[in-house]
């Protein structure tokens, strides 16, 4: 769902990357749309805001709906930065203009298929490979990857496919020198992750359970993992994501940026977030061509030698192509 805010003769764009079916989260795109219409937009429309903190404070008492609030906040930040002739990444405190990137690959029915996809990704220039794993599609697959590609930057994403009783199986992955195992247990099973991490030399990366600072502080206190994945949609916006980045920095816990299946609009916001200094690991942010025959922005996000370039124009630095948006539009609501 795309969100366009108009003010001061400018337009700001954001994206609420809710899913279609409530399996990843309760907040589908339909839920986000309803929350925006009933709760969020009445707090901000027709009002004057001179800085982002005041904008966010206008609806701070509303709980939940992280994707909706992230999309709304991003649209305002794009609008605000344009009005200040300031690139969004500079506003956030970023400095880098080139971002190293990795690729996330799903489970394939045959090991040869995933090996071919990794070979193509490495040839394309991706600097880090993430593969999905589950019981029965883990040890043999990772072993085959190491045999063929040697010491590439490799991590495994379990998507909560395991239980604590699988600790002995997961421990066998230690010999493959993975960067991390992402989210092996249920999202909020911090106690289980803490027990599992004690048994593994491979760092555990916490993902879906990192929904706000309170959950992150609890996980860090319990030593439930050694790495944190930050998704601005999941935590409720770029400002909340920056706060989580800063928390990891203070605790000297490595952090990196993940993404949802965003169009170039959400991707541009993700790029800006990735410029923050403590995001030192290649993130899950790909060029436009990875998912889209044509993106909704110009210029599209392109990869050069494993890096994505961050544009220095005001706001997100990309122009939204309205003709493309209209061509793919399935529903539209306007509020004044």
Question: How many distinct helices?
Answer: 13
> Could you tell me the number of beta strands?
14
Shape: globular
Biggest β-sheet, characterized?
Answer: 7 strands, parallel
What integer value in Å does the Rg equal? 20 Å
Helix content: 25-40%
Supply the number of structural domains: 2
Q: How far apart are the termini?
A: 18 Å
Give the averaged pLDDT, no decimals.
96
CATH structural architecture of the largest domain: Alpha-Beta Barrel
CATH 4th-level superfamily of the largest domain: Enolase-like C-terminal domain
How would you describe what is shown here?
- A seven-stranded parallel β-sheet has the order 4-5-6-7-8-9-10. A three-stranded antiparallel β-sheet has the order 3-13-12, with no helix packed on it.
- Helix 1 (29-44) packs across helix 3.
- It has two domains: 2-85, Enolase-like, N-terminal domain (Enolase-like, domain 1), CATH 3.30.390; 91-319, TIM Barrel (Alpha-Beta Barrel).
- Helix content is 39%, strand content 15%.
- It is of the alpha/beta class and 336 residues long.
- It contains 13 helices and 14 strands.
């Amino acid at each position: 769902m795309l969100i366009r805010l108009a003010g001061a003769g400018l337009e700001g764009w954001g994206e609420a990357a809710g899913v279609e079916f409530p399996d990843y989260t309760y907040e589908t795109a339909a839920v986000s749309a309803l929350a925006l219409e009933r709760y969020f937009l009445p707090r901000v429309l027709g009002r004057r805001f001179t800085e982002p903190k005041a904008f966010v404070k206008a609806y701070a008492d509303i709980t939940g709906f992280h994707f909706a609030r992230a999309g709304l906040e991003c649209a305002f930040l794009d609008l605000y930065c344009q009005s200040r002739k300031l690139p969004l990444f500079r506003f956030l405190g970023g400095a880098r203009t080139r971002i190293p990137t990795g690729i996330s690959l799903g489970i394939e029915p045959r090991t040869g298929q995933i090996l071919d996809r990794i070979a193509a990704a490495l040839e394309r220039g991706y600097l880090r490979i993430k593969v999905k794993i589950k019981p029965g599609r883990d040890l043999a697959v990772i072993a085959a990857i190491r045999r063929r590609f040697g010491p590439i930057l490799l991590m495994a994403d379990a998507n909560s496919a395991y239980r604590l009783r699988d600790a002995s199986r997961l421990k066998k992955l230690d010999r493959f020198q993975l960067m991390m195992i992402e989210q092996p247990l249920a999202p909020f099973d911090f106690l289980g992750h803490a027990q599992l991490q004690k048994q593994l030399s491979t760092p555990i990366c916490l993902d879906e359970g990192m929904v706000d600072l309170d959950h992150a502080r609890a996980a860090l206190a319990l030593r439930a993992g050694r790495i944190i994945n930050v998704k601005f949609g999941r935590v409720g916006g770029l400002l909340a994501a920056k706060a989580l980045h800063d928390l990891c920095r203070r605790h000297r816990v490595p952090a990196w940026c993940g993404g949802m299946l965003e169009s170039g609009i959400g991707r541009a916001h993700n790029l800006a977030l990735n410029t923050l200094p403590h995001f030192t690991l290649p993130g899950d942010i790909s060029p436009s061509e990875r998912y889209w025959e044509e993106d909704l922005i110009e210029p599209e996000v392109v990869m050069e030698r494993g890096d994505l370039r961050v544009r220095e124009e005001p706001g997100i630095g990309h122009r939204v192509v309205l003709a493309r948006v209209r061509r793919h539009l399935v529903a539209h609501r306007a509020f004044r």
